[in-house]
Prior knowledge:
By secondary structure, the protein is mostly beta strands. It has a single domain, classed as CATH 2.40.50.140. Helix content is 6%, strand content 43%. The chain has a five-stranded mixed β-barrel. A hairpin with a 5-residue loop joins strand 2 (19-22) and strand 3.
Amino acid sequence: MAENINRVTITGNLTTDPELRSTPSGTAVCTLRVAVNGRRKDQSGQWVDKPNYFNVTVWGAQGENCSNYLSKGRPVAIDGRLDWREWEAKDGSGKRQTVEIVADTVQFLGSRDGSAPGGQGGGQGGGFTPAADVPADTGDFAPAGGGADDDIPF
């Protein structure tokens, strides 16, 4: 019998700044709202973007990192699972429910200052700039030999 699978991976942009709270026991919990654009054709045959919005919960130290380093508009990639919750509305108007993503990993994309990756954005925080003049370390790789075809084990 097949096992159930509950995995979701999205990439999108934050629609609000992260909100960090703590449980009564002191565990950090950060909530994010992520917009992911899909494309579809409208009735006239033109491609249009259709935004989808997802609530994301990030627990522990990773949630603290999200709160410290992410802000509205920042692109992220999130891998996690879907979680359904139900509760009674505070105003007594009935039950409420939601499906949210509980993140296992959050990958920060782009740079903190909003420039393109590797760019010289000139803003605060600065992004990663790769050093193209530094040669790659190839010491772990032996040079490929010009062996005969009969050396292939299959």
